[in-house]
Request: fold
Amino acid sequence: MVSLPALRGYVLEEQISALLGANGYRLLTASDDEQCLRWTSSGLMLTGRGTDHQADALGELDLPTPFGLPVRLFVEAKYRESPVGLPAVRNAVGVLQDVNQRWSTGFGARGVPLRHFQYQYALFSTSGFTRDAQQFALAHQVSLIDLSGDAFASLRRVADDAARRLLFPSPQNKVPLLALREALRRELGSMPVPDIPSAFLESGDTEHLDRVARMVAANTSGELLFGFPRGALVLVMTPEDPEAVVRRLDRGEAELVVTMHHRAGQTANYWRLDAGDGFRLSFGLPPLIEEWLMSHEELTRKRTLQVKQHLLSSIAIYHRGRLVRLRYVSSRG
Reply:
């Protein structure tokens, strides 16, 4: 049996995976990497150095990385009432250490290890993260994305609505999770061709699953952009005017020069990028960084400039299969 918080996180994970698909990452299935990935009755499993790991939402960056390993990203979503704590981040760190150390120089049963990858981990939470979880994540380069803000209210509402529709009419709280995942991916477009072996698909009311999946797809906006600064940080960016942002990106420019402003919001501080012509994006940074910025008023200006120049000086976004770099300058013109 699955709980309401777990099922909400499950749906949210698929929504985020679909959004990542529009931002340069391709959702992986077992057929993409027969050496490392395989389906089981529990879901998609990734072989590490010491054991197998659940990898239900694993994306690979479609664009090549010069002089670097191809990047794969674990996506995990938590939809709870309380902040996500240290154990979830510890698990992420353990998974990364195991899968990033998977290869040896020997010839294994599956052949020569010709393909190596750099695995990263993004943990999403609708209720934020505890302080110790943030500290541990920053130390080990695990990306924590807080979805508790107003900009993500629609995303949360859809996941909650879908979970309730699935859970409460179902006898004994049994929801066929793999069948649900397949239905969601088919409707969201993140896995148009069914890939999960039929032997692992539980029986259930497929018509009801399809109805819920269509509702999720119809109400999951593709307007959010994911930004990737230097390092392991992932930024979820909200366009002020989505159509203006798309028009600017459709010009085909490889680089946009942006100004950057740090603003105080009603519930949290946020950052805004402006490239002109209506291209404005807002995003937040981890609370621990914001706390450091604001802890000493006389140092706030200096520290804000340091964040702009070092952490956020270059942010990569992906649009229609192209990489676009947002480059910060202190003033335009």
Observations:
- The chain has a mean pLDDT of 88.
- The chain is about 35% helix and 25% strand.
